[in-house]
Write a structure and sequence with these properties.
Blueprint lengths: L2 H6 L1 H4 L5 H10 L1 E5 L5 H11 L3 E5 L24 H12 L4 E5 L8 H6 L3 E4 L4 H14 L3 E7 L2 E7 L7 H4 L9 H4 L5 H18 L8 E6 L4 E6 L6 E3 L5 E3 L9 E2 L2 H10 L4 E5 L3 H6 L5 E2 L17 E5 L4 H12 L5 E5 L4
Parallel strand pairs: 1-2, 1-4, 2-3, 4-5, 11-15, 12-13, 12-14, 14-15
Antiparallel strand pairs: 5-6, 6-7, 7-8, 9-10
Helix pairs in contact: 4-5, 4-10
Length: 349
């Protein structure tokens, strides 16, 4: 490593967990970042500053004025410009030692395999479910670790999938069902900076083989309440590869999965037998108050300490609008060996 490189990264190299060997691993690594938006901006900035050798940037979008409160890589002068190309220009000025490759296209089934195969690690900062599943399935097929992050309103999530045979995105979210997005629900501008920094941190740990990796763990951070929680999950299905390169879940035991209850069926049950339904709304308090449907409010981060209060003589129904948090709540209750019956529920679209 050249003397100028050593000087640039000396504060990192000084760390005993990193050392020169860790910095050399960063230099030799190739990372593909999907999305150069709210999450992608801090990920790209920190990985570029850290000295990752090659970074690919996938994004077919252009900079919009509404992006600027959270996508801090861009300025007013960049409005209307291609994000991937603009990001490369900005990041090259930040660290000319990094090889930056723009891919001003949308990741899809036709280009995912070819694109991902040229990199060691993939970071998914996309904002839609189809892209997340495409990224996951092709990373599994190609045996590439996948760093995941998502944001909405004041809450963010981080995890690492397919790390050394660990759980995948489909293990945690088996069904591709669209929920709210930032355009509809809003997002605090600082939040993607926090979550993106965590994602970059996990990427560096994976590359340098240091620390505890968030594999089989979903980190949830609520910046409004300053609450953090980690939910643990496992690889709950064997996977196989079909001719198209998609990962297909194998048949599971019927009693292994939380059961979904349709909102329309819930309304019928609550009308006919209200005394035997225990509804738990796992959204945040402000969501519960804004869109009240009944029941008790136990936000998901608070649930682990309340599991023993779930009545085994009633049917427990967890609810949130998109179904993501209610599914996690039901999984958590099942793992606690709940003696009664429980369901997860979302708003019917």
């Amino acid at each position: 490593m050249e003397s100028q490189e050593r000087k640039r990264y000396i504060r990192q190299i000084t760390l005993p967990e990193m050392g020169l060997a860790g910095q050399e691993k960063l230099k030799a690594s190739k990372v593909l970042v999907i999305g150069a938006g709210g999450l992608g901006c801090p990920v790209l900035q920190y990985l570029t500053a850290a000295g990752v050798g090659t970074i690919g940037i996938v994004d077919d979008d252009t900079v919009d004025l509404t992006n600027l409160h959270r996508q801090i890589l861009y300025s007013n002068a960049d409005v209307g410009q291609q994000k991937a190309v603009t990001a490369v220009s900005k990041l090259s000025a930040m660290n000319p030692l990094v090889n930056l490759i723009p891919f001003p296209v949308r990741l899809d089934e036709n280009n995912a395999s070819e694109m991902i195969s040229g990199f060691d690690l993939v970071i998914d900062g996309s904002d839609n479910f189809p892209t997340r599943y495409i990224a996951n399935d092709h990373c599994v097929a190609l045996n590439k670790p996948l760093i995941f992050g998502s944001i909405l309103r004041f809450e963010g999530q981080v995890s690492v999938f397919n790390y050394r045979g660990g759980p995948t995105y489909r293990c945690l979210f088996p069904d591709a069902e669209e929920g709210d997005n930032c355009e509809v629900a809003g997002v605090m501008g600082i939040l993607p900076g926090i979550i993106g920094s965590y994602m970059a941190n996990e990427a560096i740990k994976v590359i340098c083989e240091i620390g505890e990796i968030l594999s089989g763990q979903l980190l949830i951070i609520n910046t409004l309440t300053n609450q953090t929680n980690i939910f643990r999950f496992s690889r709950n299905f064997d996977s196989s590869l079909n001719h198209a390169g998609h990962i297909l879940p194998q048949k599971q035991h019927q009693d292994a999965d939380p059961q979904q209850l349709l909102f329309s069926d819930f309304e019928k049950r609550i009308e006919s037998d209200p005394d035997h339904i225990f509804l738990v709304d796992v959204r945040e308090e402000y969501e519960f108050e804004e869109d009240f449907i009944g029941g008790v409010n136990i936000p998901l981060p608070d649930l682990p300490g309340k599991l023993t209060t779930m009545p085994a003589d009633k049917t427990v129904v967890f609810y949130c609008r998109s179904g993501v948090r209610s599914l996690m709540a039901s999984q958590l209750l099942n793992k606690n060996h709940f003696a009664g019956r429980s369901y997860w529920m979302k708003e019917d679209k």
